[in-house]
UniProtKB/TrEMBL annotation:
This is Methionine ABC transporter ATP-binding protein. NCBIfam families: oligo_HPY. It comes from the Bacteria. GO terms for cellular component: plasma membrane.
Length: 336
């Protein structure tokens, strides 16, 4: 269905360039995203990783066009979907893109579903509203989708209310809703944070399977490097509103080039470290209204030296083809 005249199927699926987002608050201007760049191809999984407040969810909200304005504003940059800059579209067109082309799954499925309607009604409404289906066809399609996300006894569960589902099953319903209109891009914002570990693995496996079947581009937003290890193709690590390292999954795990990435990796619990103390990253991310001079990571960085405390902040150095790191001393970090 052509929801957006002017799209070029040969253009990159999603191309985010020099994205800046700021929040104008009574305490000052918080630069939540400060020049983010990344691309996403069909069938590719990009993980955006970092601690709370590093700008990853705000990046997703900017792509979706759901920033709270005020206080949030996109002040610079481009978000191109198949060649069309979404930031230049009218709100009506963005709504169409959101419904049909780029979908999002949120962390808290319970608050994202309407408690007074059955899941079948909520799913069916998407098909009735956007595809003009009859009530009976919409219900049939809703059952199909619930089966695709592996909800047992979908034919009967379609008439249940959200509170009658477990946390993991509710997240499956959310995935079904996000996929209902066959989006090309799916953004999953901490999709497994509220779930226990075994259910987390099932949901990640389900997302990976559905992505392959549909050849979707998937953006996974998470603070947990352990969660993305098996499913991501590329990782963008964010800190204080900037992408500080971007690389393929193998490079990031084998030889991180930024001290922040390295510290995140060291803080993942490992079975072969039984009895040893888990490594933590000392200190807290900076307030975005008061980011340190020079490299924003310098107060927490074990490699920091004088040059790191001076402006300008490190640029995105090319570590290798398709690999960047914002660290003056990336060669030392990577162990070259
Ligand atoms: Fe650490 Fe300096 Fe590299 Fe920043 S530029 S990450 S402070 S070594």
């Amino acid at each position: 269905m052509d929801v957006l005249p002017g799209i070029d199927p040969r253009a990159p699926l999603l191309d985010v360039t020099n994205l800046h987002v700021e929040f104008r608050t009574q305490y000052g201007v918080a630069k939540a995203v400060n020049g983010a760049n990344f691309r996403l191809a069909p069938g590719e999984t990009l993980a955006i990783l970092g601690e709370s407040g590093c700008g990853k969810s705000v990046t997703a909200q900017a792509i979706m066009g759901i920033l709270d304005t005020p206080p949030g504003y996109v002040t610079q940059g481009e978000i191109r979907y198949r060649g069309v800059d979404l930031l230049k579209l009218t709100e009506e067109k963005r709504r169409k893109v959101r419904a049909n082309r780029i979908a999002m799954i949120f962390q808290d499925a319970l608050s994202s579903l309407n408690p007074v309607y059955t899941v079948g009604f909520q799913l069916g409404e998407l098909f009735r509203k956007h595809r003009g289906m009859s009530r009976a066809d919409a219900k049939k399609r809703s059952i199909d989708l619930l089966e695709q996300v592996k909800i047992p006894a979908a034919r009967t569960r379609v008439d249940d209310y959200p509170h009658q589902f477990s946390g993991g099953m509710r997240q499956r319903v959310m995935i079904a809703m996000a996929l209902a209109l066959d989006p090309e891009v799916l953004i999953a914002d901490e999709p497994t944070t509220a779930l226990d570990v075994t259910v987390q693995a099932q949901i990640m496996g389900l997302l990976a399977d559905l992505q392959q079947q549909r050849n979707m581009g998937l953006i996974l937003i998470t603070h947990d490097m352990g969660v993305v290890a098996d499913v991501a193709d590329r990782i963008s690590v964010m800190y204080a509103g900037k992408v500080v390292e971007e690389a393929g999954i193998y490079d990031i795990y084998a030889r991180p080039a930024h001290p922040y990435t390295k510290a995140l990796l060291e803080s993942i619990p490992r079975l072969d470290m039984k009895g040893q103390q888990l490594s933590v990253i000392q200190g807290l991310p900076p307030l975005l209204t008061d980011v340190p001079k020079g490299c924003a990571f310098n107060p927490r960085c074990r490699y920091a030296r004088d040059a790191c405390r001076q402006d300008p902040a490190p640029p995105a150095y090319a570590v290798a083809p398709n690999r960047t790191a914002r660290c003056h001393f990336f060669r030392e970090v990577i162990g070259e």
